[in-house]
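Researcher: Please predict.
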Amino acid sequence: MGGGIAVFARAVASGGQNSTIWSDKHRAHRNLAALCGFLRLVERLIHVAFELHAYQMPAHSPFRKTELSDRDPGMSKKPAPKPQDAPKGDRIAKVLARAGVASRREAERMIEAGRVAVDGKVLTSPALNILGHEKITVDEAPIADAEPERLWLYHKPLGLVTTHKDEQGRKTIFDELPDDLPRVMTVGRLDLNSEGLLLLTNDGAVKRTLELPSTGWVRKYRVRVNGRPTEDTFAPLRRGIEVDGERFAPMVISLDRQQGANAWVTVSLKEGKNREIRRAMGAIGLTVNRLIRVSYGPFQLGDLKAGEVEEIRRRVLRDHLGLEGAKPPASRKTPSRNRKPEAKGAGKPAGQPTRKPGGKPAKGKANFGEKRKAKTSFQGEGSKRHSPPRSDAAKSRGPRKPRTSD
């Protein structure tokens, strides 16, 4: 065909139909592209061979290469720098806070004021890590040892502000806490008109861990609202609602009961934003007139009265927070009763069956001596096994008939 294209008058040519050959002399040869590709491959191989040979030339040769070519990014990659290890120890402000001197911010201000010294050297910046062997003084007095992590349950009453200092001069919860408590911080907050469970801790790391939504701990509240809501009223809150440009996560809400003009509901959420429940209820037309936090994760308010403080046991705190030194429940020793050893010969006389508390002998529980005696009484001389003795009724029926094999 000479590389031409056959053109037929019909879609399918018949056996006797003549074909017309049309050829385009200006089109590229069909083998030209393959030939160009082969030439490029040869050129590439020659270039690679020259590159490899250039590194093996003598040191005095002007064609010798000392660095890899930038044309091959795979060969010019340098090893990634190793990540620097995190500095050891804790910041000086954290150490002071753990020792009960002050909060971290106050400790930083004390350092900037020149009141803190480490190994006799006065600090001017809080950018210092403490390894534990240094001697730290505040106002030339050594600080106390760091206290272990502790957690308290506090029933916050109405009318107290959850802050250390109030600009308006209102009473704070720290004004009403017992005097024997060390320096503590609050886990989250409850506003002036809210009451219920508030967690207190002496460790900043515990505080941050409990406040993070990623911890997954549920905060449960008993809320009294003014109005007559139904289950459908809270549908927007169950889906998640946006109030004043702030998005609130879906809430778990159950309508408990209607009490006159008010209704009691239980609200559960995993994050506690500023006045979240009050703002969300206001967005659906309800006004909150009482709010009580009844639980925070595994910790319950229970029967704790307003203003009372109760400390969580160290073992419980370790289990829930995974602190160092915590033992899983499976590895703990099960408590057992220590029974006094019985005196020798103080047991029951041989031959007496054991008895139940009612006084009747226990069925099927004969003394070991009786069992052995009954067993040996069935055995006779010259045989390994004998049948038990017959009863009087069986004897009256006559002698036993010998067994015959079929």
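Model: The first helix runs from residue 32 to 55.
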